[in-house]
Amino acid sequence: MSIRHGLLALLEHGPRYGSQLRTEFESRTGATWPLNVGQVYTTLGRLERDGLVGQSGEDGAGHALYAITDAGRAELRTWFEKPVDRTSPARDELAIKLAMAVGAPGVDIRAVIQSQRRHTVKAMQDYTRLKAQALAALEDTASRERDDVAWLLVLEQLIFQTEAEARWLDHCESRLIRLSATAVTPAPAPSASVEPGDGPDAPHAPGARADGAGEPGGSGGRRGARAGGRGR
């Protein structure tokens, strides 16, 4: 969030003092990103140091007023015209949490995903209710208030963002299920060990046949026993 450029945009409508800027900023964004007065004055001090704003006297109540300079207007125009950089995304706590949960001992990553999904869906439902209220307010007023329209745009961005997050969480869970299924593969059966001399090509004792003809229990032995019986 660029507080710096947000304050410049508000100052382009005329001189403002610190708490006034905070109130207008939160009204324009629906207090989605609340500011404190100290943060506003710190930013104003940096803008003044950079020559983008200057002090412009006081109002009737003695508040110090700030006004945008020509350099500040040029900076603001550049900000509006230049796309927001997405090649270096801001840190996302949820993405970092899931990345760290992979393989973490004692952590059920699917439980983490399901808990986050419930929270994300509830937030999306809350934003949708607020959007309905904002639309009703716009329809009830004859003139479209600038702050109401701005708040509606912010709400719709939050709705789309939570919808995308819920879909991503569904994808993460499906991905983990597929990876778990492919990781469980049956172990190969152990090969039977062959003792020396037990194989079909193993050498036999002299005079012995491979089919057991020379063995006492072999077919040759049985034929010899029958022959002897007939001889008797």
How would you describe the overall organization of this protein?
Residues about 210-225 have low confidence and may be disordered. This protein has 8 helices and 2 strands, in the order αααββααααα. Strand 1 and strand 2 (about 65-70) form a beta hairpin. A two-stranded antiparallel sheet has the order 1-2. The longest helix is centred in the C-terminal third of the chain and has 38 residues, at about 145-185. It is mainly alpha-helical and about 230 residues long. The protein has helices at about 5-10, 20-30, 35-50, 70-80, 95-100, 110-140, 145-185, 220-230; strands at about 55-60, 65-70.
What attributes does this structure have?
mainly alpha, 232 residues, 59% helix, two-stranded antiparallel sheet
Q: Based on helices, strands and strand pairing, what is the structural class?
A: mainly alpha
How far apart, in Å, are the first and last alpha carbons? Answer: 114 Å
Mean pLDDT: 84
Strand percentage? under 5%
Largest sheet: 2 strands, antiparallel
Question: How do the strands of the widest beta sheet line up side by side?
Answer: 1-2
- How many strands? 2
